[in-house]
Design a protein that fits this description.
The protein has about 650 residues and is α/β, with parallel strands linked by helices. It has helices at about 5-10, 20-25, 30-35, 40-45, 50-55, 65-85, 95-100, 105-135, 145-160, 165-190, 195-215, 215-230, 240-245, 250-280, 290-300, 310-345, 365-380, 385-415, 420-445, 450-490, 520-530, 550-555, 555-575, 595-605, 625-630, 635-645, and strands at about 305, 310, 510-515, 540-545, 585-590, 610-620, 650-655. Strand 1 (about 305) and strand 2 form a beta hairpin.
Length: about 650
């Protein structure tokens, strides 16, 4: 079995990006989106409510206020983000919103925070999943938790390399099982202690008044908002919907909104219901168990059928499904994270490789980076959930705040229209809540790890700035070269031909593999004319249009790519024709440039047997590994491919 067959066996057969069936099969309808993306939000009920409840300390009666505040906040954020879905139906989430409405630098901050956010989404979801699993296992086995967590990240990464919807289908039964079992536990848990519901609110008011009389209202509010902010992990998955709009089935806006509200209702019910269970059942922390595990054991303690007590089996099933749902949530990081990386790459903040699609039509490099980053975070933090929650919440609410501030600014600019005032009120309120949570979390937990998140995010932003500066410098230099070459190209021949020169397949043919900028193509053509005067009688210009995330998800961009490619190639041919040089062009399109060029060169060699291929490689002073990362080694890979088939490819250096 050769390498290509092994790759196909592991990842699946290549998909054709031009077939409408392919696009339809990969697009997520509301149900799949609710499972694949909404799981990030809903799964946070496994750790968000617990962190908030524990932060109350001995004042657990205030948990009823937390449950109400949690549900209200979920619906407030959902209402705000539906406006983002309407305004930005092509996705991009916080990055695209802030870049458009607040400028590219602010957008970069949001984008950098989102990259770290989705890495942490994978890490915290996997860590919480392992915690749920090990709640059923004796303490002496807990030393294997970190290794299991890293293996699960690798497994999810592999599933996503095979294709997004394929990874979601596997997790559907787990998701639905979680919803069903937790709904049963919450409803029965509340109903069986319904007598306590009457006293919950008065007891909370009394406890709050007594605390206020002792330490003052400022301390009471500080405690409540601290607990509220540390439960901020509950709301983190809402951003994922806006970030992943490109993955949704048409009509995207309708699908996105439906997905958002499905997530909001299920999250508000699950998170708010679990906090209420903690309060009604007086749940206390038990070493080696999550609060959810302890609560479920209390609720099901007397469950039996015909004398058979099935409490442990039902709790075990619930925890297994919780662990599975957290894996589904981690999968969100592998879906939404690469989408953000692709958006940053298109805008030249990240290497171009992160916008490229694999033959399974997924952003392979983004999936690999997300998985590698998550494993690194798990190893550094030891997979401790309460540490990861702090790191996670800071970046999530930084992005929330910047995004909602951008929408608030936009709505404020429309304030003369009375119909937008209610929309302005929603986004402004949501922005205030998110800014408060971000500030409290950052200040409260700065020395406990929040500074690490800010430092890492700052480093990502710095790297992005350096990458953009490099690309801008190269782009400017290529423009200068193109202007210099244009002067030569614009020189009219002494006598224009009366008819187009005819190609002779029996003659020597120079084939130029050109890209989307005229500078490199003309540079190579002119050098070949100087180095091999009179040798070549035919001239062929060939180009491959790369189908990346932008073209695959937007048919308008795909048609524009075709028009631009043909126009550019025709320009080369016209230049040769005006100088009585026989010329033609070839073009093709695909996600894997090397394979597509290889296919194209076979066509050209069949038509012109005496062909010599030419390509360009940019050369830099003091070239480093970074240059190799930012500029693909396509020419060398093509040369190896063609040489193995007995064809010639000469690489012409072009110094920048």
């Amino acid at each position: 079995m050769n390498l290509s067959r092994l790759k196909q066996f592991l990842l699946g057969k290549p998909l054709d990006p031009f077939r409408s069936e392919t696009r339809h099969s990969l697009a997520l309808v509301t149900f799949f989106a609710w499972v694949g993306i909404g799981a990030d939000a809903i799964s946070s009920a496994n750790y968000g409510p617990e962190q908030a409840f524990l932060a109350l300390g001995t004042h657990t009666q205030m948990a009823i206020f937390l449950a109400i505040a949690t549900a209200v906040t979920v619906f407030l954020l959902a209402a705000a983000y539906t406006q983002i879905i309407e305004l930005f139906p092509n996705g991009g989430g916080g990055y695209r919103v802030t870049s458009t409405l607040m400028g590219p630098k602010v957008g970069l901050v949001a984008g950098g925070a989102l990259i770290i956010d989705y890495v942490l989404t994978i890490a915290i979801s996997i860590a919480a999943s392992v915690d749920a699993l090990f709640s059923m296992i004796p303490l002496e086995w807990h030393g294997y938790k970190l290794a299991i967590a890293c293996l699960l990240v690798m497994l999810l990464g592999y599933m996503n390399l095979r294709g997004m919807k394929e990874s979601i289908r596997i997790l559907i039964p787990i998701f639905l099982g979680f919803i069903a079992t937790h709904a049963v536990l919450i409803i029965i848990g509340i109903v069986s202690h319904s007598e306590g519901l009457v006293d919950i609110f008065p007891a909370a008011v009394q406890d709050t008044d007594e605390m206020a009389a002792t330490v003052g209202w400022f301390a009471v509010m500080a405690l409540f908002f601290r607990a509220f902010s540390l439960g901020g992990g509950t709301y983190t998955g809402i951003e994922s919907v806006a970030s992943s709009m490109r993955s949704f089935a048409e009509p995207r806006v309708k699908t996105g909104k439906a997905t958002m509200w499905a997530i909001a209702f299920s999250l508000a019910f699950t998170a708010g219901g679990i906090i209420l269970l903690y309060l009604l059942w007086d749940v206390q922390h038990v070493e080696g168990e999550t609060l959810n595990a302890t609560a479920f054991k209390l609720i099901t303690a007397n469950w039996s059928i015909g004398g058979w007590n099935f409490s442990s089996q039902f709790v075990g099933l619930s925890l297994l499904l919780a662990a599975g749902l957290l894996l589904t949530a981690a999968n969100t990081g592998f879906i939404a994270g690469p989408n953000i990386l692709a958006a940053l790459a298109v805008d030249r903040w990240m290497p171009h490789m992160f916008s490229a699609l694999s033959n399974r039509l997924v952003t392979k490099n983004g999936v690999l980076l997300m998985g590698g980053g998550a494993i690194g975070v798990l190893l550094i933090t030891g997979g401790v959930v309460h540490v990861l929650v702090i790191l996670y919440s800071v970046n999530v609410f930084l992005t929330f705040t910047l995004t909602l501030a951008s929408i608030t600014k936009h709505r404020w600019s429309e304030r003369r229209n009375p119909k937008v005032w209610h929309r302005l009120g929603i986004v402004a309120a949501a922005c205030l809540v998110c800014a408060s949570i971000f500030t409290i979390t950052l200040v409260e937990k700065f020395s406990y790890g929040a500074w690490k998140t800010m430092l890492i995010t700052g480093c990502v932003i710095f790297i992005c700035l350096k990458i953009r500066k490099h690309y801008d410098t190269v782009h400017a230099r290529l423009k200068e070269i193109e202007e210099d070459l244009s002067a030569a190209m614009l020189v009219a021949p002494k006598k224009a031909p009366t008819e187009k020169p005819r190609m002779d397949p029996r003659e020597s043919t120079a084939v130029f593999l050109v890209g989307d900028d005229a500078a490199t193509g003309m540079h190579t053509f002119l050098w070949v004319q100087r180095l091999f005067p009179g040798v070549f009688k035919n001239f062929v210009f060939a180009s491959v249009g790369e189908i990346d995330t932008e073209e695959f998800t937007d048919e308008t961009r795909w048609h524009k790519l075709r028009r631009d490619t043909k126009s550019m190639l025709k320009h080369y041919v016209d230049f040769c024709t005006n100088r009585s040089l026989p010329a033609t062009y070839y073009h093709d399109y695909g996600t894997d440039v090397v394979d597509t060029v290889n296919r194209l060169t076979e066509r050209i060699s069949a038509d012109f047997p005496r062909s010599v291929f030419f390509s360009t490689k940019l050369i830099f002073d003091n070239e480093t590994v970074l240059h190799q990362l930012l500029h693909n080694q396509l020419s060398y890979m093509l040369q190896k491919k063609l040489h193995s088939k007995g064809q010639n490819l000469i690489i012409m250096p072009m110094k920048i």
